[in-house]
Amino acid sequence: MKAVVMAGGEGTRLRPMTASQPKPLLPVVNRPIMEHVLRLLCRHGMTETVVTVEFLAPLIRNYFGDGEDFGVSLTYSAEETPLGTAGSVRKAERELGGDSFLVISGDALTDVDLGEMVRFHKDHGALVTVGLARVPNPLEFGITIVGDDGRVERFLEKPTWGQVFTDTVNTGIYVMEPEVFEHVPPGQVVDWSADVLPELLAKSAPVYGWVGRGYWEDVGTLDSYFNAQVDMLARRIDLPIDGFEVSPGVWIGEGADVDPAAILHGPLYVGDHARVEARAELREHTVVGSNALVKSGAFLHRTVLHSNVYVGRGANLRGCVIGRNTDVMRG
């Protein structure tokens, strides 16, 4: 089965980090979110993928190329203007070859069993299967009610607490039959959850909901972005961490130089070719990006450094994210 990775969003709630790089390229434990998504697809045998791009599209193309380095084959479908979640996939219809396909966001972190979701879809003869997750606070998402047979009965976008009647939310992961494009006019702004799915329900089309048992995080805010780092380091997500686990919870990337006199309290990660000098202290839930330099006497706790960051002597960083190519001087 082919997959569509939606990677055209601007990620406005994560600015300024997303002002000069697309949200799918934001690193979670030193690898872009979309790279984690492609690895998950590959794990479940979905190696032919169409990537929909719009905002800062050349950066995504330049990083992932044709996908060979990531074990997949990538083609790209570019939007001149945003077409919405359904409109963007409709534009890529030709690349999907008229077969069933899976849609997944390139900027959400998950380890759900996509193979199980596909089997559910086929077993129930669905036109659309909606991937659902249980969350403690559903206010930010569209909630979904399903019947005992798994058929979707109702959607409600962005509910108030008085309207919350379930904790299952739409993850934006779908398995679909090509006939769904009959409900998506080409070249128009169309959204799956706001436009297409309500229309299908009104017509009693076979739309089913599948509740995944794994991890799912939207990564739409700074808090959720940081939580994703913590969850990866705590191994709450069944996704690989690149590098070597030199002691419990302490991961060191290829070519990294950590002085034996540096103080490390995991879980933490030091990226490829990064350098941590003597008497620097890295505390829990810290990520040091590739080619970063942490000077002697610096203190980092619950801090994420992107690539090529310089942290000066005696700097004290707590609970922060430092964007790429940034110098943090003494203080």
List the helices and strands and how they pair.
Layout: E1 2-6, E2 27-28, E3 31-32, H1 33-43, E4 48-53, H2 57-64, E5 73-78, H3 84-91, E6 101-105, E7 109-110, H4 114-123, E8 128-134, E9 143-146, E10 152-156, E11 168-176, H5 192-202, E12 207-211, E13 216-217, H6 222-233, E14 244-247, E15 250-252, E16 257-258, E17 263-264, E18 268-270, E19 275-276, E20 281-282, E21 286-288, E22 293-294, E23 299-301, E24 304-305, E25 310-311, E26 316-318, E27 321-322, E28 327-328
Description of the molecule:
With 331 residues, the chain is an alpha/beta fold. It folds into 2 domains: 2-222, Spore Coat Polysaccharide Biosynthesis Protein SpsA, Chain A (Alpha-Beta Complex), CATH 3.90.550.10; 245-328, UDP N-Acetylglucosamine Acyltransferase, domain 1 (3 Solenoid). Helix content is 18%, strand content 29%. The chain contains 6 helices and 28 strands. It has helices at 33-43, 57-64, 84-91, 114-123, 192-202, 222-233, and strands spanning 2-6, 27-28, 31-32, 48-53, 73-78, 101-105, 109-110, 128-134, 143-146, 152-156, 168-176, 207-211, 216-217, 244-247, 250-252, 257-258, 263-264, 268-270, 275-276, 281-282, 286-288, 293-294, 299-301, 304-305, 310-311, 316-318, 321-322, 327-328. Strands 5-4-1-6-11-8-12 form a 7-stranded mixed sheet, with helices on both faces. It has a 5-stranded parallel sheet with strand order 16-19-22-25-28, with no helix packed on it. It has a 4-stranded mixed sheet with strand order 14-15-18-21, with helices on one face. A hairpin with a 2-residue loop joins strand 2 and strand 3 (31-32). The longest helix has 12 residues, at 222-233.
